[in-house]
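Memo to structure team: turn this sequence into structure tokens by end of day. - J.P.
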Amino acid sequence: MNRLFHHVFFVVPALLLGLWTGSAMAEGTLKVGVLDDSPPMVFRNAEAEIVGYDVDVLQEIGRRIGKSMQFMVIPWDEKTEYLNSGKIDVIAAALMVTEERKGLYALTAPVVKKFTETAIVADSSPMKTTNDLSGRTVCTMAGSSSNATVAGFRGPGGPVAKQSQAPTLEACLVQVASGEVESAVMDGVTCAYYVRHNPGQFRILSGELSVGQTAFGLRKNETQLAAEFDRAIADMEADGTMKTLGERWFGSHE
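Reply from structure team:
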């Protein structure tokens, strides 16, 4: 009786919380939760296909560990719930490594070893450097690491005047273009892509707001799967695959 009671006690809370207690190691296909407006990491091409650096890296990891990858766009501020409920098995799309995320996910080895956050403004803006964000209005994407970066920002003139959040990176850029906010903070390679593909509309402020690394996020209990990912990433580093993919996506930003 006591053993049955303990069994029910531990399983029912997991069900009530919507936690998925299985293992993706047994699955032939891994469901990957992504953004679709974070170029060149993950975005849609002219044919509306999901492509990018993270996509290519994951496809190659899948080939090496014997699993296929199914990409699905998710609300970024709900990624943890999607992961823990089993709706997805992997979080991708420029997932910066933070102390908070180390506690939430089983993070893989880094897939980008130097990843920066910076600010993008309208081309007509008087701002020149990230120090000029003091007293300005700034947009960040809900669920992104940029929220904490902006919240902790202290330039020579103090913090930003107001920080707002939008559901996507593109929504932040729309706010910048319309003048609703004065700047948006996101990763540097995505800023560079949008500036390159919208000539005369946006400009990147000089100076980095943060420097870190990106990884893929798995459920905390997926230690075996994380080890498989790490072995594949190490092999890809050793045989030059990571370098080739980096040059493909970060060299041209196309």
